[in-house]
Amino acid sequence: xxxxxxxxxxxxxxxxxxxxxxxxxxxxxxxxxxxxxxxxxxxxxxxxxxxxxxxxxxxxxxxxxxxxxxxxxxxxxxx
Length: 79
What we know:
The chain has helices at residues 2-25, 29-77. By secondary structure, the protein is mostly helical. Helix 1 runs antiparallel to helix 2.
């Protein structure tokens, strides 16, 4: 997962560098905007991956806490 996200970020950096070259070479505004939209979509995809990972970790932690609490309650009530 980390390698995938890092690779995507590196791709975005490459795309942004490409946009700089387009601007410097005087390429039409429309082409620059198309590339910028692609970068925006890429950033959104990376954000989604990161959010999904964090959400999964939070969910697992919450589930472990719930299981621990139930186990503790069971032990306390049966001693």
